[in-house]
Structure formats: structure tokens, C-alpha cells
Specification:
single chain; alpha/beta; ten-stranded mixed β-sheet; binds 3-isopropylmalic acid; binds magnesium ion
Length: about 350
């Protein structure tokens, strides 16, 4: 099993190291190869996604990704900014299906910004389309406005678009995922205003005919954002476009108390995948050894399950994470004032120890 390891920027390298330690503690053989990505790659090679890094990622069975980005690169031209690395990998590898679970662990209910009774037992899966929509639509740019309120004025524009096959394939992924869980799918759109999302709604409804056993409902994105904080447990699987999914998955993450707990998987049609924590590079705490490595460790578990066909090993990691939470270990992001806190390394080492204790 060949894994491309792309630690990236900020806390990326620290948390990826802990995930690697956990993978090495399994009785499996991996070939890990590291490459720079994001700001680290810009420093080393002048580009956030060097050709050699992309080639390594494409040739691997899976990519274990840390995080990219730092404020110090905000003034670079867009094509050289760290974020372009992740967008470039998604596009070049065809990673159209993004899985973002939002699970509220019973031990961490207190960390949520919502009342415990609203989030206890929460288990949502957000499936975000990841290679289309306004993020990739052409044309985009700046120009003199051809019409509108201020013709001739300088304006900027992007293009929102989805083709039928793009909507169909993500809808199939979502219906199939719903079948493996609570059989309930919510498609989020903005069909009351946008042509693109009326089409989205129509196509998702058509695909539904093949999954009559799955309950489908449709919500406008503004209402979905509201429902997520009003009564989040009404949701099972949510499927939506790239931009709405970006926003709603951050919102859903916060319901669980800490984005530091949440893994993600981005898959292509061959189940090749990129696995990364849902959180970012957190440059403010980089190098301090306080970041929570659990989201990355849980991403490694998703990698085992979705790309490497090692469901049993994935379950072992997930059980080990539950065991360390149960034992009371807390990094700063999930600690109460009265808890004693552990750092990144100690948390990773505890998961490794919990794995060993399973034998
Ligand atoms: C995410 C991030 C990225 C996105 C950025 C870093 C380009 O916010 O993965 O949610 O917008 O998709
Ligand atoms: Mg985001």
C-alpha cells in the first residue's frame, strides 16, 4: 500500500507525524513517501503543487494530507497561494466526492456551542461535490462591466455551473452512503434563485428513482444553515454543491465541539482518495505541540476503510480514539477549564498505546 504523505504547512507536519505513528503501529505494510505541498512547496520549489508532488499523489493508492496555508502567503498571486495545492490535487485527481462526517462524541458534548441535548448523539455525514460549481467554473476574472447598474465600471465575476453527469455521480454516491446509514438524504440547493441549483434539484430527484428505499428531501441552503443550529439531529446524510458544502461543513463541524476531531475523505471514481483533517493549518499554534492530532488520525482510519480495503484496521483506530477520550485525554481544543491538557505527541502516543492494548 503506497501512501503519499503531504504534511504541508502550519500544524500539518505535527499532526501527520502522529497519524503515521498510529499507522505504523498496525500489523500492515505501508510504503510512505513524503513530498512538500502548499507554502512549504512554494518555499522549496517555487510552486504550491510541484509536478513531482502531483505525480507522487497520482501514483499512490492514497494521499495523507496535513493542511496548507499561512497568512504570509496572502499577498502572492492567486496561482501561487497554498490553497491552490489542494484545489489542484482535487481537480487533477478527479476527487469529486468529499465526505465530511460530523460526529458529536458523548465525552465531548460539553465542547459544543449548542445545548448538550441538541447535539448528544449527533452523527451527520455531509457529502460535498468537490470539483465543480463556482470554484472551478469558467470564465472568471475582472473586466469592465458589460451591463448592470454601472456599465463600464471595473467588476469581478465567477461562473457557477454543474453538468448533468457531475450531479448524477455525486447523487449516486450520496444515495449509496445513505443506504449504509439511516436511509435519509437531504439535498441542499438554492433552486428558488439559481438556475444551476434548480438543475441540481431536478437531477437529484431523477436519480432518486433508482433508490426508492432512501428518503429524500430538499432544503434551500439558507434554511439548511438555520436547521443545522436549530435541530441538527434531524439530518442523516446531506449532499450539496462545492460552495454550499464548504460553508455547511464548517458549520456542522462546530456543532460537535471541535473541528479538531473531524476527518475527511475526498474520493475519485476509482476510490483513490485524499485524506485530510477538516480543519486548516492553524498557523497561530504551529510548532507549539498543542494541536489535536485526532482529526488526522481519524482521517487515516477513513483512508484504510475507503481506499485500502482495511475496514478492520480502520475500526481498530476508531476504537482506540474512543478509548483515549474515555480515559480523559484532552488537547486544548476539547478541554474544559478543569481538565488537564495533553499536547499533540502525548495524544498520538496514547492512541498508539490504546491500539496495543487491544491485543
Ligand atoms: C476546505 C477549505 C478549502 C476549500 C480551501 C483551503 C481552498 O476551506 O477544504 O473546506 O474552500 O475547499
Ligand atoms: Mg472550507
Amino acid at each position: 500500500m503506497k501512501i503519499a504523505v503531504l504534511p504541508g504547512d502550519g500544524i500539518g507536519p505535527e499532526i501527520v507525524d502522529e497519524a503515521l505513528a498510529v499507522l505504523r503501529a498496525l500489523d500492515l505494510r505501508f510504503e510512505f513517501e513524503r513530498a512538500p505541498v502548499g507554502g512549504a512547496a512554494y518555499e522549496a520549489a517555487g510552486h504550491p503543487l510541484p509536478a513531482s508532488t502531483l505525480a507522487l499523489a497520482k501514483a499512490a493508492d492514497a494521499v495523507l494530507f496535513g493542511a496548507v496555508g499561512d497568512w504570509k502567503y496572502d499577498r502572492l498571486e492567486r496561482a501561487l497561494r497554498p490553497e491552490q495545492a489542494i484545489l489542484g490535487l482535487r481537480k487533477a485527481m478527479g476527487l469529486f466526492a468529499n465526505f465530511r462526517p460530523a460526529i458529536c462524541y458523548p465525552q465531548l458534548t460539553h465542547a459544543s456551542s449548542l445545548k448538550p441535548e441538541l447535539v448528544a448523539g449527533l452523527d451527520i455525514l455531509i457529502i460535498r461535490e468537490l470539483t465543480g460549481d463556482i470554484y472551478f467554473g469558467q470564465p472568471r476574472g475582472r473586466r469592465a462591466a458589460p451591463d448592470g447598474h454601472f456599465p463600464g465600471a471595473e467588476e469581478a465575476f465567477d461562473t457557477m455551473r454543474y453538468s448533468r453527469p457531475e450531479i448524477e455521480r455525486i447523487a449516486h454516491v450520496a444515495f449509496q452512503a445513505a443506504r449504509k446509514r439511516g436511509n435519509k438524504l437531504t439535498s441542499v440547493d438554492k433552486s428558488n434563485v439559481l438556475e444551476t441549483f434548480q438543475f441540481w434539484k431536478d437531477v437529484v430527484s431523477e436519480v432518486h428513482a433508482e433508490y426508492p428505499d432512501v428518503m429524500l428531501d430538499h432544503l434551500y441552503v439558507d434554511n439548511a444553515a438555520m436547521q443545522l443550529v436549530k435541530a441538527p439531529k434531524q439530518f442523516d446524510v446531506i449532499v450539496t454543491g462545492n460552495m454550499f458544502g464548504d460553508i455547511l461543513s464548517d458549520e456542522a463541524a462546530m456543532l460537535t465541539g471541535s473541528i479538531g476531531m473531524l476527518p475527511s475523505a475526498s474520493l475519485n471514481a476509482n476510490n483513490q482518495g485524499l485524506y485530510e483533517p477538516s480543519h486548516g493549518s492553524a498557523p497561530d499554534i504551529a510548532g507549539k505541540g498543542v494541536a489535536n492530532p485526532l482529526a488526522t488520525i481519524l482521517s487515516a482510519a477513513m483512508m484504510l476503510r475507503y481506499s485500502l480495503n482495511q475496514a478492520e484496521a480502520a475500526t481498530r483506530i476508531e476504537r482506540a480514539v474512543l478509548a483515549v477520550l474515555e480515559a480523559g485525554l484532552r488537547t486544548a481544543d476539547i478541554a474544559r477549564a478543569s481538565d488537564s491538557k495533553v499536547g499533540t505527541r502525548a495524544m498520538g502516543a496514547a492512541v498508539v498505546a490504546a491500539l496495543a492494548a487491544q491485543h
